[in-house]
């Protein structure tokens, strides 16, 4: 049976505005408020690849009507360096340049600290996941600032996935739990609820998709796997 446990002292109905949560229908084309979960397609991953020592996140059009643009006026304080990996959402183009909506958090971060904003599309190169990971490539203890995922070998080519994620609210901690069995296929490990129903089943509440990218496990979910503001989305390193 599907198992999602969460403990919340006060029920919250707001969306996470600072993490990987998707943008809503009020988002303007020139605003980057997050990266949407796409049930049909895995999230795109990019790597900062430029001769510049720093690539700055750029402001939204709602911050400044001249943005996004790669100008001093549009630069945020946050920046990335070559080799950093990001999750990529929509794109925005003006007459001169194209920009990618990106969210970033280091796999080595000790605390949850997502940075989001526009990046010049020319500063990013697509990163393909491992095309055919062996089962041993999935298994292990994977950790992230907001939680952990343990993947172990199961029967008939499947793996078992158990994990817990946390969100530190002002007065309490929200949690989410995944407990599923699934078979990796086409370079992806994805499941709905406990893995007992199909990924496109309308009854599915918790959707999770994973990819192996370089030495990392990249996870994404539909924000339906736990309490308010809880997500398993992120870059996980092997413990």
Structure description:
With 239 residues, the protein is mostly beta strands. The chain has one helix and 15 strands; from the N terminus they run E-E-E-E-E-E-E-H-E-E-E-E-E-E-E-E. The chain has one helix at 135-138; strands at 44-48, 55-58, 75-80, 85-93, 98-104, 115-120, 124-126, 140-144, 147-153, 159-168, 173-182, 188-192, 207-213, 216-221, 234-238. An eight-stranded antiparallel β-sheet has the order 11-10-9-8-15-14-13-12. A five-stranded antiparallel β-sheet has the order 6-5-4-1-7, with no helix packed on it. The chain has a two-stranded antiparallel ribbon with strand order 2-3. The protein starts with 43 loop residues before the first strand and ends with a strand. 39% of the residues are buried.
Share of residues in helices: under 10%
Give the terminus-to-terminus CA distance: 28 Å
Order of neighbouring strands in the sheet with most strands: 11-10-9-8-15-14-13-12
Content-based structural category: mainly beta
Q: Identify the overall geometry.
A: globular
C-alpha-based Rg, rounded: 18 Å
Given as residue ranges, the uncertain stretches (5+ residues, pLDDT < 50) are: 1-18
